[in-house]
User: Fold these one by one.
Assistant:
Number 1:
Amino acid sequence: MTAGHLRRVQETAGQWLAPESDPTHRLPAGGIGTMAVMAESILVTGGAGYIGSHVVRQLVERGERVVVLDNLSTGYRSAVLGAPLVVGDTGDAQAVSRVLAEHNVGTVMHFAAHTIVPESVSKPLKYYGNNTCATRNLLECCDRAGVKHFVFSSTAAVYGIPAEGLAREESPTAPINPYGLSKLMSEWMLRDLAAASALRYVALRYFNVAGSDPGGRLGHTAPTATLLVKVACQHAAGVRPALQIFGTDYPTPDGTGVRDYIHVEDLASAHLRALDYLRNGGSSTTLNCGYGHGYSVREVLRMVERVSGKPLVIEESPRRAGDPPSLVAHAERIRAALGWSPRFDDLETIVRTQLEWEYRLQREPSLQRN
Ligand code: UD1
């Protein structure tokens, strides 16, 4: 325990006292002496970003103690609701170790990453550096600090092009872009570290995340986003003059790419379930996060037209580098393992909440400034 750590515990002893019923509390490494017991925190890396911020809000609402580490490269201060924000990088060992110690972190949820598939094709080292190397650093810090639980943001991109477009957790992993590979390597590091230590983890393989907090407090804020639902809603809201369909000659029913779109609020709740699972002694596991059915690009765009009441200006363009034709989750294992059941499995709700957030961003441009 560092001197700063000790001072902080003493100064804020009342605040840090964990209730007897809190199953997460543990003693500071140096023993308690006359000090109060400091409650354990959950470190959320990337907690100022799109998905991380929704998870932080749900954790805080549930009464969890949370600290966010985010370098604000694509995240926003305004997105961190109810938790302290430390501005820093997961690749910075000193910064990470300090946060782990000062906040008595018992669980890490690791969202911080670059996530844009075509960009990973043109800038692979950016992805291996920020996703794979920074994750290795984070894991090393966690190992040193005795972090017990790790929830990892993995991706359906680890499957590459699965047979019939349907990916099971045991399907072969064969990424077709550096993004998927950068995340798969992190899964391997996590698996090997867990085998060699007391760390237990849940790796969640996200399918296509979309939508916004139904309460209107949060959403996908970055203006340069590339995600289909976001881009289409930006266009419907007047932010973009047109949008493109990347590829109309795929071997899919209407020739456009098929994806399993999952509402961000459901994805966030899966993280809280994963945390409970680990606290209850669950063994390390890897789970798909999707609904188990897909929509084509054209189907998504039709829904955006219906919900917004506006015809979209659509350009048909060639395929985009790194895109598989179809990617849909086999989504049974997560329900059985975590007892998770989605509440927003409805394309209309996904599009409506996304659109409402785009309208809010237009009314409040300050949300897009740090
Ligand atoms: C998204 C995630 C990726 C995850 C993957 C899982 C991000 C930035 N990307 O990638 O991390 O691994 O889901 O499946 O979080 N499309 C268009 N026009 C557009 C944008 C997209 O036609 O303007 C098409 C794409 O070609 C694709 C589909 O829409 O067929 C979905 O693309 P997109 O929303 O960009 O997500 P993914 O590339 O699947």
Note: The pocket of uridine-diphosphate-N-acetylglucosamine is lined by residues 115-117, 155-157, 207-208, 226-228, 231, 243-247, 257, 259, 297, 320, 323, 327 (CB under 6 Å).
Number 2:
Amino acid sequence: MPSVAEVSNSTHNPKLHSKPFFNDSSSRRQKILQQRKSLPIASVEKRLVEEVRKNDILIIVGETGSGKTTQLPQFLFHAGFCRGGKLIGVTQPRRVAAVTVAKRVAEESGVELGQRVGYSIRFDDRTSTSTRIKYMTDGLLLREALLDPYLSRYSVIIVDEAHERTVHTDVLLGLLKKVQNARSKSADGHSNGNNKNADSDMILDRENDTNGINTLKQCQGRKFPPLKLIIMSASLDARGFSEYFGCAKAVHVQGRQFPVEILYTLYPEPDFLDATLITIFQVHLDEAPGDILVFLTGQEEIESVERLVQERLLQLPEASRKLVTVPIFSSLPSEQQMKVFAPAAAGFRKVILATNIAETSVTIPGIKYVIDPGFVKARSYDPVKGMESLIVVPISKAQALQRSGRAGREGPGRCFRLYPENEFDKLEDSTKPEIKRCNLSNVILQLKALGVDDIIGFDFMEKPSRASIIKSLEQLFLLGALTDDCKLSDPVGHQMARLPLDPIYSKALIVAGQFNCLEEMLITVAMLSVESIFFAPREKLEEARNAMKSFASPDGDHLTLINVYRASDEFLEKRKMEISKEKTEKIRRKWCKDNFINSRSLRHAQDIHSQIRGHVEQMGFRISSCGEDMIMFRRCLAASFFLNAALKQPEGTYRALASGQVVQIHPSSVLFRAKPECIVFNELIQTNHKYIRNITRIDYLWLTELAPQYYTMQN
Ligand code: CDP
Ligand code: MG
């Protein structure tokens, strides 16, 4: 692979384009300019732009932090790739990355976010008609393809972080291959309607505009300029991508990496959170200045480490307390995400508590120490049982290397791996693509909506197993999304494809719409879309339990979540008249704290609620409430979550009806003690036990009445 850094000539003076900043922060502006100039990618701007001009598909690999995500789109913008009002789209697997990078690039370009530079993620759109560089999640671009099958607004699409191989990235790669093909044909003067038999034109063959999704008739005969496709990856092995795109050209942007000393533990750690905490304080008290990056598995864990660090700090002498914690995870409210990039106050050390988002997606300056317990939360799917679950698994070698690399961006660093060295040797080389370990019903729904009917024959970079495709097809059929001949059903299938939700949640909204409890279901789906509404600190377990009791519904967790949501609304509604906006926020947070509610999660759920509400209103659903009739609401849950029904067994465990698995109610459920005969649940968590969470009591007979397509078949 040619290395751009090597072949670039040293006389090329990187030209960084910038407008004078319109406010007084010129020293910050100077600093940013300086930072940009010193990025490895800055010296190869011209060469990269040339490569993009020459190649319709280009693969760019480069170490994390070399400037790919923030700089390349700006280079292309200034090289004229947005002429005629076209867009440069940059997809990210993670919401946080799309948001933080867009903010950074807007700042670098001296423009307001949402103007020339913007982002769009599910439930949050910050773009306008003047946007030319658009950061977005890969899932969002897939949704856009439903409305604009040629992605005609884009002149360039950059698929970033492709090494992550999320399920959306993989589907997107397949789709973009088709779109590019179709667009180059249209540019050659082919009429798009004439290629009915060509597989690559499958997405162009849709004619029925049943739900306002398809606009192909309008596209026919129109000409589109060719689409430039750039695949960016932090993993140095570009072979897979190159082969998939017919031996596409790959170039390497050299990064800058200082040595990182790797330290292992002598023995396996029985409690990795405890080991993490000890290591944080060892570094803080014994090591030279420099920030710490800790890799944890999720929001809940991050927040509990955050609390523990703060508690322990209070036990230290005043002079040793100069440590601040900053969390970063995907569902963190957008205004808080940027905090990780701000330097700590003078004399303070920053400890960033992150999910694997900080592996490659976001580059945080100032890190000298990395603490890596070696785990990640990942999706796992059992196609035989049809169950998807989130499990905490060991990371791969590639991930461990990426993580330690974060310590050596700006100078020599140290990485503390909280496991023995021989454990490292046992790790898998690289992570298995997500498409091989997740439920595919969402993917299938989207592909079907895009006109791809033959899912098994679709040109995936790596094919998911036939068994999991078939299982997911079956699930969609049972939910009523597919007809007997495996087409999207009308209207349910089309409605489900339009909603940016898991098909089961979309089904719940559709059913609730028919039975007058859409208001309740919207709250439920929003609350289920966030992690951990309740929090129970170890030292206040009793108080937290009592607080939860005041919201608890004897019918289960879904109604309990509705109670929390409404209680918070009512509390604020009463005080709205009295006080200012800032005060409201303060009071809201205090209310959450007093009630042991996670205020970040609740706020996120409220945002999601208003967004989904917008979607269903647009789709013409009438939003009404079932009032006191909670039986109706529970029947709706049964009618949509019937694939996750479970029956109590004599010894108090449950048997999941669809999979036959023996599961237990999670201790955090309000039904943990009540143990009703028959339940539906939303989530399966596998630790030492198989726990189910978010549970509602239902009547066994409802299953045969409301889901006869499944329960008579199974008897
Ligand atoms: O994509 P790649 O990992 O190659 O690098 P990048 O994300 O473009 O980041 C390049 C540099 O921009 C980083 O080293 C950070 O110093 C800086 N950056 C930042 O300060 N704030 C952000 N939100 C994003 C990047
Ligand atoms: Mg990047």
Note: The longest strand covers residues 678-686.
Number 3:
Amino acid sequence: MPGDGIGPEIVAEALKVLERVGEIGGLDLEIEQGLIGGAAHDAAGHPYPEATREAARRADAILLGAVGGPQYESLERDLRPERGLLGIRSDLGLFANLRPAILYPQLASASTLKPEVVSGLDILIVRELTGGIYFGQPRGIEERNGERVGFNTLVYSESEIERIARVGFEAAMKRGKRLCSVDKANVLEVSELWREVVERVGKEFPEVELSHMYVDNAAMQLVRDPKQFDVMVTGNMFGDILSDAAAMLTGSIGMLPSASLNSEGVGLYEPIHGSAPDIAGQGKANPMATVLSVAMLLRHSLNRNDLAERIEAAVGRVLDQALRTPDIFGEGMKLVGTQGMGDALVAAL
Ligand code: ATP
Ligand code: MG
């Protein structure tokens, strides 16, 4: 689902990579195209049309570019491109959002932090995506005691906490076996329950070293010494904020993938960046975040870690060749466009 803005450009390159790696690995791929976001609104009158919904339900995995753009901002709320994304997330029950933040050594100078603080950074934030304060009831703006008040509700059930905690522990098992659960248990009852349930799930994973951190401290520690973390697991709003902060540690929005998974292992894979309307159609967007999303797709939905690693190695090799799109360009590097980068990745594979 290419979507809007640079979406079609970067997804085209990611599909070239997927097809090449499919040939290498003997994957029997069947690829369908789906409309989503503004592009779907323009063509079908809705950001998440019925045909897209049906295609999504048939799929083992979904690769998405990006949605949105200034031309859609005047649409009524329910027809905006972002609604397409919310629609597919809730439709497929994509409750677990995985956001790796990896700093490629070749790009160390792009970070705003000192090289020794971030070099070799490789952390994973697991964010709960379908619950918490963004979805809790009641919510609204109403008149109380002669003035208006706005309110939302932060609510998590035991089963919601349990399943996201399990994703966190399972991810930690495949990595450095350390999990940090982030909450605000000194202030919030919901966090007290969160901590209790995470502890309980932790008993099933005795090999994983579990720690807890308050979200304010976690924000500070993430900037002070991010390499102390392996996997972090947290709720929807805390995860929203922490994962953007973690992304900036790596300095390159065009390099970071994400996965959103449901309990059947079906996933939606997309770059963390948006539709970048300012550079759309110019052939200069960095396709690597989308290509690395393909790697996550192979790992988490198609169970082909071997092919995911091949793609990640190809990204490293192309960076070693000094090829750079404008967003990561620097002195002494060779400038390439979106297609040039895609071709180089296919050649590296
Ligand atoms: P959204 O609200 O959809 O998250 P946003 O307003 O946060 O979008 P982006 O679309 O992510 O913003 O763009 C932020 C900046 O990063 C823009 O200047 C954009 O050109 C740049 N950018 C985003 N993605 C890429 C990419 N793949 N390659 C190069 N530059 C990018
Ligand atoms: Mg954004």
Note: The pocket of magnesium ion (ligand 2) is lined by residues 274 (CB under 6 Å).
